[in-house]
Design a protein that fits this description.
The protein has about 725 residues and is of the alpha/beta class. Among the domains are: about 220 residues, Glycerol-3-phosphate (1)-acyltransferase, CATH 3.40.1130.10; about 90 residues, 2-Layer Sandwich (GMP Synthetase, Chain A, domain 3), CATH 3.30.300.30. It is built from 24 helices and 32 strands. The strands form 7 sheets. It has a 9-stranded mixed β-sheet, with helices on both faces. Strands 1-7-6-2-5-3-4 form a 7-stranded mixed β-sheet, with helices on both faces. The chain has a 4-stranded parallel β-sheet with strand order 11-10-12-13. Strand 30 and strand 31 form a beta hairpin. Helix 10 crosses helix 11. It is globular, with a radius of gyration of 28 Å.
Length: about 725
């Protein structure tokens, strides 16, 4: 256009503004475009690079229309020469890049240095997943070479338009679009880094900026009930929940079912309603129904024994508990535990819920009224109460708000490309935060579906379900994944795109078996109930074996030095985190809340000793409570356990405990169900893995059944009690 109207700049401006106006009319009428953060777009700058996710053919035009900058769009030279795109991509508004010629970057750098604002799609192509794909290093190279400031942009839902590469049947002509501009980032400075690492590091920083921008743009204030209504209305007849009883619920039927169940339960006078049920469709609908009518579900952990169950009910002041007769018989819980409380059995609901309640539920699903509205500040109110595992003490009640759970889901979805076509398999108990947030609620936010299975301990059945249903995403713990891997057929996990491991460390043997036998890479993550739960996670774009991934967007962290533990020049220490996903507080525990809210200013103390690698990945050394001070040296009991895991046979387990010692302060004891474990063998194994002599257990005790929690983790409280009755074998 400069060549055509070089002598008539006014005419060029008129044509440009006319085109912008026409495009705005189209975008407003057809896509109802919402624009946010335009105040962040700089009016004056010396050098500027605009980065954005790339979901459709109209992305460049969309940004050119709304940013109102004389920007240049970086395009692939090969793409620009294609017949259908030649007219649009070979113009004065584009800068072609030859990806096969590294010297072509020199011309791009010169353009930026001359002050031309450059629009770059760092992925280099339109996404095929709806999420961020790999970031090319060229963008990072241009950014740090020019010293330009960076403006991150997020385009929302252009992937659903007819201009994307999404499956054709799922595209929409009138798909709504959002354009969100973030705050301008300072130039990338990498002068202190070796030249060979600069490109990769800069690309990583670009990826982080886009992830942060995605989280900022998508994490809008809402409640679980509002989001449930919205997603159910949008997805209609598509399946949301399915379970082993053959029950399945589409999004539409799930909404109706939740209104029917929630309406029936809303007559209960209590705010807190207990849920003691396995993973079933009805359990998920009970949870959503209670949310719709602003009741607070309290999930009870049935794996920790009657004493812990009684403690949880008293702590939450529960008088009404929804459960199942068949389920109580299966888990062998004596009903005397619930003395004085109102038990509501799901087996009775079919008879108790009449035609009137069902019709009311159907009408409410069409006209939700106040259930779809949000009171001021409601997002910060408690949405659910979960209980910690109690592996190191009495279980604590954790109050998670709507904001906590929704924020954590949005954080996770910036890192993992969950698609509408994905099918989750969740056998983790819903009373576990991983099983609730990631295994039950997140699939809804991704418009996917989920199969809920009643028990993670059915090692033969769970892999068969994965095969029979064609599931694509699987969540579990190392203990459960280990069990499945020994019973599954090599073809059972053929459809799996991702397997995520959390709650405990991923062992070498489990990782290798899934990779070698099933051809699936297990991704390890890390979290805590108090964080809703994910803190960090590995993904297909950022993965470093032996770590638990990078801290999620929207979270701050700090490392506090611990006496006796090498802080590795500030890269190791006790981890504290802060973010919208961190709990509102503990239930009836003012002492703990005072420290969390006041003394630590909202920072959550994870109690874990971690190390941040050079690439920014999180490596867990162990819980501070699981460190022992021997002869003045801090020894990680978790690290010793991991080193000995699987050394005495596939089905043999090892737990390391510390007891007092008059001479050295403490000494280590190995508890194992292997009678072949010998002192000499243990010493050689640990020495070969770099452990000092003081890290070797001085005593071995045999225990046929090492106590476990419902998540598969070792129950150290129970183990400590049992050790008093178990004699030394060596």
């Amino acid at each position: 256009m400069d060549r055509m109207f070089g002598k008539y700049p006014i005419l060029k401006t008129i044509i440009e503004e006319g085109c912008r106006l026409l495009f705005k009319i189209y975008f407003c009428l057809v896509h109802r475009v919402r624009v946010k953060g335009m105040e962040n777009v700089p009016k004056e700058f010396e050098k500027l690079i605009i980065i954005s996710n790339h979901e459709s053919l109209i992305d460049g035009v969309l940004l050119w229309t709304y940013l109102d900058l004389k920007l240049k769009i970086l395009v692939n030279r090969t793409r620009a020469q294609e017949r259908w795109f030649k007219f649009f991509m070979q113009s004065d508004y584009t800068v072609p890049l030859d990806t096969m010629n590294p010297y072509s970057l020199k011309g791009i750098i010169e353009r930026v240095n001359k002050g031309a604002p450059l629009l770059v799609f760092p992925e280099g192509r339109m996404t095929r997943t709806g999420s961020l794909m790999k970031i090319y290093e060229g963008t990072g190279f241009v950014a740090y070479k020019t010293g330009a400031r960076i403006l991150p942009i997020h385009l929302g839902n252009t992937y659903s338009t007819i201009f994307s590469r999404k499956e054709e049947s799922r595209r929409k002509i009138f798909a709504p679009i959002t354009v969100t501009a973030g705050k301008v980032l300072e130039p990338i400075v990498l002068e202190d880094m070796p030249p060979k690492r600069r490109k990769k590091q800069a690309a990583g920083m670009i990826y982080k900026a886009l992830c942060d921008m995605t989280y900022e743009a998508t994490n809008e204030t809402s409640t679980i009930s509002r989001e449930f209504i919205r997603f159910c209305k949008e997805n209609g007849s598509r399946i949301l929940y399915k379970d082993s009883t053959g029950k399945e619920a589409s999004y539409k039927r799930a909404l109706t079912g939740a209104f029917v169940l929630g309406g029936y339960l809303s007559r209960l006078p209590d705010k807190h309603i207990g849920l003691l049920l396995p993973n079933l469709t009805v359990t998920a609908l009970m949870f959503m129904g209670l949310e719709l009518f602003r009741k607070i579900p309290v999930f009870l952990n049935y794996s920790t024994g009657p004493a812990a169950l009684r403690h949880a009910m008293e702590l939450a002041d529960l008088t009404a508990i929804i459960t199942s007769r068949q389920f109580l018989e299966r888990i062998r819980v004596n009903q005397s535990v619930f003395e004085g409380r109102n038990l509501i059995f799901v087996e009775d609901l079919r008879e108790e819920i009449g035609l009137k309640q069902k019709l009311t539920g159907i009408i409410r699903s069409v006209f939700p009224g106040t259930c779809s509205q949000m009171r001021p500040g409601e997002e910060k109110e408690t949405a659910v109460i979960l209980f910690t595992s109690g592996s190191e003490g009495v279980p604590k009640g954790v109050c998670l708000s709507h904001e906590n759970i929704i924020s954590n889901i949005r954080q996770a979805l910036t890192k993992v490309d969950v698609r509408e076509t994905d099918y989750f398999l969740n056998a983790l108990p819903i009373f576990h935060s991983f099983g609730l947030t990631i295994g039950t609620v997140l699939p809804m936010f991704a418009r996917a579906k989920v199969f809920l299975y009643v028990s993670p301990l059915h090692y033969r059945i769970v892999p068969e379900i994965a095969y029979d249903e064609g599931c694509t995403i699987f969540v579990g713990t190392n203990t459960f994944l280990n069990g499945y891997s020994k019973k599954a057929h090599p073809y059972d996990f053929h459809s799996m795109r991702y397997i995520f491991c959390g709650a405990e460390a991923l062992s070498d043997s489990v990782f290798e078996r899934y990779a070698k036998v099933y051809g699936v890479r297990v991704m390890s993550g890390y979290g805590a109930t108090e964080c809703s739960p994910i803190i960090s996670i590995n993904n297909s774009l950022e993965h470093e074996y032996g770590t638990v991934g990078k801290i999620l967007p929207g979270m701050e962290y700090k490392l506090v030095p611990v006496e006796g533990i090498d802080n590795k020049q500030g890269r190791a220490g006790k981890l504290y985190v802060k973010g919208k996903n961190v709990m509102t507080g503990y239930l009836k525990n003012e002492k703990a809340n005072e420290k969390f809210r006041v003394e630590d200013h909202g920072w959550y103390d994870t109690g874990d000793i971690v190390e941040i690698t050079d690439e920014g990945f999180l490596k867990i050394a162990g819980r501070l409570k699981r460190f022992s001070k021997i002869s003045g040296e801090m020894i990680s009991l978790t690290a010793v356990e991991e080193a000995l895991a699987g050394q005495f046979g596939e089905r043999k387990e090892a737990a390391v405990m510390a007891v007092s010692d008059e001479r050295k302060g403490e000494r280590l004891i190995l508890v194992t169900n292997s009678k072949d474990a010998g002192q000499k063998d243990i010493r050689e194994i640990l020495k070969a893995k770099g452990f000092s002599d003081i890290a070797c257990p001085r005593e071995i005790r045999y225990m046929k059944d090492i106590p476990k929690l419902g998540t598969g983790k070792i129950d150290y409280v129970r183990l400590k009690e049992l050790l008093k009755t178990v004699k030394s074998e060596r």
